[in-house]
Write a structure and sequence with these properties.
The complex is a heterodimer of chains A (561) and B (752). Chain A is an alpha/beta fold and 561 residues long. Chain A contains 21 helices and 25 strands. Chain A is globular, with a radius of gyration of 25 Å. In chain B, strands 18-23-19-20-21-22 form a six-stranded antiparallel sheet. Chain B starts with 8 loop residues before the first helix and ends in a 10-residue tail after the last strand. The chains are: A alpha/beta (561), B alpha+beta (752).
Chain lengths: 561, 752
């Protein structure tokens, strides 16, 4: 019996014991074909999915390597049936290929006639195919490339896409590495993406995804369309690109509700693209406005459904997706994979933290007992009202105040989802509130003041969930959220993870009403954070120690060593 | 006597020496029980068609081809040299062995000239795949057969050649016009014979002509399939993986059935709905769930039980099984599977009526299954460790070995797949466990697998996301505890448990306290218990028990509170163990009938109430099916005869023969169980005249004997008499008497 670090489970999850001497080696052996699912402290869970196996095939790994890795590192005998299944699954990839035919354009060819027959007869696939050229080849309508790939994936015969990419209009872009360098993992991510052609890079918030995007642009040296979640995030991209690349202000256009500029590099918001008038998407021509050589999707996990459809038409262009987490609450991860491309790079958050590129964070859940009146209100509330009542309970206010008092000198964010509550908190804590109706100018002003240290506490709604760079924020208190959304949790935590100038730790508090839906949802989020490897502590509000008290945050002013 | 060749089978049998006779009885044990009275009886039994078929069924294709040569010979009787000459492509050693096998079994007899007994001729319908002779088929062949054959067009010739190759009988095509298919043209020309409305047969003469210089077809040599070789260690590791998987899955399946038994269908078996549920909960595809159910049944871990005998439950054997170590648990499964008389692969297959067979249903029983399984595995076991055969090659080999039973081989690929799932077989190669299973049954299997399976672990790793990971198979005790305090999230080599609000609540419900849980986690976990876990336990424990539920057996209620106080205060009602739960309600831990008795005895007039609203305690103990004893359903093949038994039987035949030869009286021979008039006549004459009779007798155990008996009376189907050889007086049932002869004084065998 060998003593490997890996345990292979019947459901094709792989458990990797992190403290094992071979763990690192094993991780790099299984990473190509297994998705990292959870990375808590001791044992990480990977999952071998058909998609992951096919991605591995697409990246040039064969079944033998996969089986060998499983057998070599496994602590216990691996069931033969599982290995056979892995080999069979991988064998399905590449029977079909999409390629450019000099005469007929895009064609689907097969090395296995039976498979092609099956596919041609499939009701879902048939409409996307054109004339049959010969027994092994069938014409594909060029516009259906994305949808065809999606449909083939669903019926279990993924096509290898060899049709390549258009180069787009060339435009000189290069990185301006003065005073900084691309970090190793960022370089690896860019390399992984470029080698694969299209795909998604998963990096934690604060790990410098924008730079990965910039580096990819420098690699493509072509006109680029960047899709972002909102205008503020778009401006941040612009600032970053001007600072870190050879691009100048004039070369970067903003395509948003306010401005409609089309320049060699154009940053557009999801919102403006999905704006409809009389049922028609009115800004679609943006995609044709330039011969884009690269399309970057920021926060790809938020990609709205209409953009999925649009993306299907853009299969001949290189696509880069950036995200902190591929968890989609709507379960459409597969669509991201099939339309944008497979995951090209992924690293456990804690690894990057260990390298010092993101700030270490402590997660604390504070449980507040509701008073009797609130409990009664909660008990008799309509089910759809319950969460709001629990999340916005008045009893949270003194606790939030105490939490902030624990860190008097730290820039802090109070994050919530309900506007009434935010207004109230803003008034009670004497802090400015940023929410959806706050103008962009006002937002920028407040963020600047916060960055400069003029404002210590900001109360923000979910507009601040994404892509707002607030490097100095070191404390976040979430008081209410979008139910148990794990993805929101990742984003909020992400606000704190930009490394601090002095390497301080960040603190992420959730204030939760005990024995209500609020705490149930919190349990969801807790699990997510723990799965990401974060230490998670739960305290009762009454036990929340102040500064300098036992268990209190005494390391704020005087570092332990 | 001069060395004239024996004229009959019986005479030839008499010339065989004891060893040869013993070999005959060993090869055809069905003729040896009960022991034949003499050689003539033996020859008679050898001629029984069932016995002949059975003997032929066990012959391989090569041996049968040799038999075909004798059967096809124009004359009755062929010399061994002629046989050799007829099959030039077959090596001499093979021929000699085949002839020995045939003569040993008395399927051919004679030394200089080999003859086939008539029953053998009848049993082989199409020797060498050739049809009957034209005369027998009543067709008039064309005079110049070769010329006619040469003149056939291509499709006609194709039809003939197909019929000439292996099976001389074919279906007439279902053509509408009819008249013009090649087969019909051939019929008209007299080259085919119609044997019934649908089928035609190719006359032997035509077949022989088409075959040319190979009248017996190509030599049927033992196929030499390509041997698959794998590293034995790898095979064992992979087998161990499959073994762990099977044991783990069966454990999970039975744990699920323990919680919620599956219903028994009226037709037997388990409902598709239940099968789906189990598949869903086990996260396996449905066919896999069916296989696991079948495996659990075969291993005696699952059976019908419950109060109404209408549910599938784990058996008591399961309780023992789960305490065993992994290798033993696997051995129970493997041995159960090997001996199982069911074909799990048939689940879901539709019968002729289009009804799909359910898992566990009686439709899956095939009594031949254990024999086929064993013969398939035995063929693999002939290869050295690390070598084996692919499924197709194995089937081809088995088909050669028992061509007359080829139709039985259909389940073999399914069986091989099952063996692979179990870890008996890996890619056509037997694992050590599999070899052990074949050679040494359950113990052998366990011995073969032991050492390959991991030792159980006694700890878990607690993680901050509230999962507990058992990095290996758990010791039974810890597994039991964990199944209470946590839910299984994924299983396999390791088990991932998750502690959730509901699982902690379940533990508290089961009587654990918060501190018990803290202690347990601290003790069981090798990693520090995460704060969130401790907090969760405390938080749930804090809420736990704010509502109280107790178990009582009965209550006494009344709107008259004064009366209740009186009852409670009454000394005579003390045995009822009443206490006040609330105003107007007294409760007792005793049953309602007992409380009623006590109250009535004390002079009250209580009335019983329908217990609809009463809180019931959990039923004591978990439900269990009685279950069969494992292994009681062994293969039903007869026990082979031991050498001693063989020798004794041969001796008895010889003795009987000698007796027949010695006596002059007429013998009445009869089929056992049938009493003929002549038997009775002979017996009553013996009683009347007081002459001893010679009896062939089969006792209640089925063993035959010859006795010389001095009859006393013949009443009610029983013969009373004095057994002279054994020196005792006893009763013989007339219907067990196989033969009778009067012993005439001087020639009678001397009494012992």
């Amino acid at each position: 019996m060998s003593d490997g670090p890996l345990i292979v489970q019947s459901d094709k999850t792989l458990l990797l014991e992190v403290d094992h001497p071979l763990a690192k080696e094993c991780r790099s052996a299984i990473a190509p074909f297994a998705e990292l699912e959870r990375s808590p402290e001791h044992v990480h869970t990977y999952r071998v999915t058909p998609l992951a196996l096919w991605n591995a095939r697409a990246a040039g790994h064969d079944a033998e390597q996969v089986v060998d890795a499983l057998v070599r590192y496994s602590r216990y005998p691996v069931p033969h049936a599982l290995l056979v299944d892995v080999a069979d699954t991988m064998d399905r990839f590449g029977r079909l290929t999409l390629a450019n035919n000099p005469v007929h354009g895009l064609v689907l060819t097969s090395t296995d006639r039976a498979v092609l027959e099956e596919v041609v007869r499939s009701k879902k696939v048939a409409p996307m195919l054109g004339a049959r050229i010969d027994e092994d080849t069938v014409v594909v309508h060029a516009a259906e490339r994305g949808r065809l790939k999606q449909a083939l994936l669903k019926i279990g015969w993924p096509a290898e896409d060899l049709a390549g990419y258009v180069d787009g209009t060339a435009h000189p872009i290069h990185l301006d590495e003065s005073g900084w360098n691309l970090r190793d993992y960022q370089q690896e991510a860019v390399d992984g993406f470029w080698a694969g052609g299209s795909g998604v890079v998963v990096l934690p918030c604060g790990a410098g995804k924008t730079l990965v995007g910039a580096a990819a642009m420098a690699e493509a040296k072509a006109t680029t369309l960047i899709l972002v979640t909102n205008t503020v995030a778009g401006r941040q991209w612009k600032r970053e690109l001007i600072a870190r690349t050879s691009l100048t202000e004039e070369e970067i256009g903003e395509y948003s509700g306010e401005r409609k500029e089309i320049r060699p590099v154009t940053i557009a918001t999801y919102q403006v693209i999905t704006t409809r008038r009389k049922g028609e998407y009115i800004h679609l021509d943006l995609f044709d406005a330039q011969d884009w050589g690269l399309i970057v999707y920021d926060e790809v996990h938020l990609l709205p459904a209409p953009i999925f459809r649009l993306t299907a038409d853009l299969q001949s262009r290189r696509r880069l997706g950036l995200t902190a987490t591929l968890v989609r609450e709507d379960g459409r991860e597969d669509d991201v994979f099939s339309l944008i491309g497979p995951k090209r790079y992924d690293a456990p958050w804690r690894d990057i933290e260990a390298q010092g590129y993101i700030a270490p964070a402590e997660c604390i859940e504070v449980r507040v007992s509701l008073d009797d009146e609130e409990r009664m209100t909660y008990a008799v509330a309509e089910p759809e009202e319950r969460y709001r009542i629990a999340a916005t309970a008045q009893s949270k206010l003194p606790v939030i105040r105490r939490v902030l008092e624990r860190h008097p000198d730290e820039p802090s964010l109070v994050i919530g989802a309900y506007l009434d509550q935010l207004e109230e908190l803003g008034a009670a804590l004497d802090a400015p509130v940023i929410q959806g109706s706050t103008t962009n100018r006002e937002r920028e002003k407040l963020f600047d003041a916060f960055r400069a240290g003029e404002i210590r506490t900001l109360v923000v709604s979910k507009v601040a969930n994404f892509s707002i760079d607030l490097p100095e924020a070191a404390v976040a208190v979430q008081v209410s959220g979008t139910f148990g959304s794990r993805q929101e949790e990742a984003q909020r935590l992400g606000r704190l993870l930009r490394p601090k100038a002095d390497g301080r730790q960040a603190h992420f508090y959730s204030v939760v009403s005990r024995d209500t839906l609020d705490s149930e949802y919190a349990a969801h989020r807790q699990r997510f954070l723990a799965e990401q490897g974060y230490a998670y502590t739960i305290v009762d509000a009454a036990d929340l120690a102040g500064r300098g008290e036992v268990n209190g945050p005494d390391w704020v002013d005087e570092p332990a060593d | 006597m001069p060395a004239a060749p024996p004229p009959t089978l019986a005479a030839w049998l008499r010339t065989r020496d004891d060893d040869q006779l013993a070999a005959l009885l060993a090869a055809r044990p069905d003729v040896a029980r009960p022991a034949p009275s003499d050689v003539v009886a033996l020859a008679g039994r050898l001629a029984v068609p069932v016995s002949v078929d059975r003997a032929l069924d066990e012959l391989d294709a090569g041996t049968l081809q040799v038999l075909d040569v004798v059967l096809l010979a124009p004359t009755d009787g062929v010399s061994p040299d002629e046989v050799v000459a007829a099959l030039p492509d077959v090596p001499g050693a093979v021929l000699t062995a085949a002839l020995t096998a045939l003569t040993d079994r008395a399927l051919l007899w004679g030394d200089e000239v080999l003859r086939a007994p008539d029953p053998v001729r009848r049993a082989v319908r199409h020797p060498a795949g050739l049809g009957r002779r034209a005369v027998d088929l009543r067709v008039q062949l064309p005079a110049d057969l070769p010329a006619v054959l040469d003149g056939l067009d291509d499709d006609e010739r194709q039809v003939l050649e197909r019929l000439a190759s292996d099976r001389p009988v074919g279906h007439l095509p279902d053509s509408a016009g009819g008249a013009d298919s090649p087969a019909r043209r051939l019929l008209q020309r007299g080259l085919l014979a119609r044997i019934d409305a649908l089928n035609v047969e190719l006359p032997r003469e035509v077949g022989l002509l088409l075959r040319g210089d190979r009248p017996y077809g190509p030599p049927r040599l033992r196929p030499e399939p390509a041997v698959t070789t794998r590293d034995p260690q790898t095979v064992d590791r992979q087998a161990a993986g499959a073994a762990m998987e099977s044991v783990g899955r069966i454990g999970e399946l039975l744990a699920l059935l323990e919680e919620e038994p599956a219903g028994l269908l009226r037709s037997g078996g388990v409902a598709v709905r239940d099968q789906k549920r189990l598949a869903r909960e086990l996260h396996v595809p449905e066919p896999e769930a069916a296989w696991l159910l079948e495996l659990a049944l075969a291993a005696g871990l699952l059976d019908v039980g419950g109060p109404h005998r209408d549910e599938w439950l784990p058996t008591r054997g399961y309780d023992i099984w789960r305490e065993q170590d992994l290798a033993d648990r696997w051995a129970v499964l493997a041995a159960g599977w090997l001996a199982g008389i069911r074909l799990p692969a048939l689940v879901g297959q539709r019968d002729v009526a289009g009804k799909a067979a359910n898992a566990l249903s009686p439709d899956l029983v095939r009594h031949t299954a254990p024999t086929i399984r064993r013969s398939a595995l035995a063929a693999l076991a002939e290869h050295p460790p690390g070598a084996g055969l692919g499924a197709d090659d194995l089937v081809a080999l088995l088909r050669w070995r028992t061509p007359r039973r080829a139709d039985r081989l259909a389940p073999v690929p399914g069986m091989l797949a099952e063996a692979a799932r179990l870890g008996v077989l890996v890619g056509g190669v037997l694992s050590s466990g599999g070899r052990g299973l074949l050679a040494g049954g359950e113990d052998g299997a366990a011995a073969g697998m032991r050492g390959l399976l991991p030792a159980p672990v006694d700890h878990v790793l607690a993680q901050p996301d509230l999962s507990l990971i058992a990095p290996g198979p758990l010791v039974a005790e810890l597994a039991d505890t964990l199944s209470v305090v946590a839910d299984v999230e994924s299983s396999g080599g390791a088990t991932v448990f998750r502690v959730s609000e509901s699982s902690v609540r379940r533990a508290l419900d089961a009587g654990w306290s918060a501190s018990d849980l803290h202690d347990f986690f601290a003790r069981a976990s090798r990693t520090p218990v995460p704060q969130a876990l401790d907090y969760l336990v405390d938080d749930i424990a804090r809420q736990h028990g704010r509502l109280r539920v107790g178990a009582i057996e009965s209550y006494v209620r009344s709107d008259d509170h004064g009366l209740l106080s009186q009852v409670l205060g009454d000394r005579r009602t003390a045995p009822a163990e009443l206490r006040r739960l609330a105003p107007g309600v007294l409760v007792s831990g005793l049953g309602a009938d007992e409380v009623l008795t006590v109250l009535r005895a004390a002079g009250y007039a209580p009335a019983g109430e329908n217990p609809g609203g009463a809180v019931l305690t959990r039923p004591p103990g978990r439900p269990r099916a009685a279950g069969r004893r494992t292994g009681s359903e062994g293969p039903s093949a007869p026990r082979p005869l031991t050498p001693d038994e063989l020798a004794a039987t041969v001796r008895e035949i010889r003795a009987g023969d000698a007796a027949v030869a010695a006596r002059r009286g007429e013998a009445v021979r009869q089929v056992p169980g049938v009493t003929t008039a002549s038997t009775l006549e002979l017996l009553s004459r013996a009683v009347r005249e007081g002459t001893p009779v010679w009896l062939g007798y089969v006792d209640a155990q089925g063993s035959g004997s010859q006795r010389v008996v001095q009859p006393v009376s013949l009443v009610g189907g029983f013969l009373q008499g004095f057994d002279e050889r054994r020196g005792e007086s006893r009763t013989f049932a007339v219907h067990r008497i196989t033969s009778v002869a009067l012993v005439e004084d001087d020639g009678a065998p001397a009494p012992a």
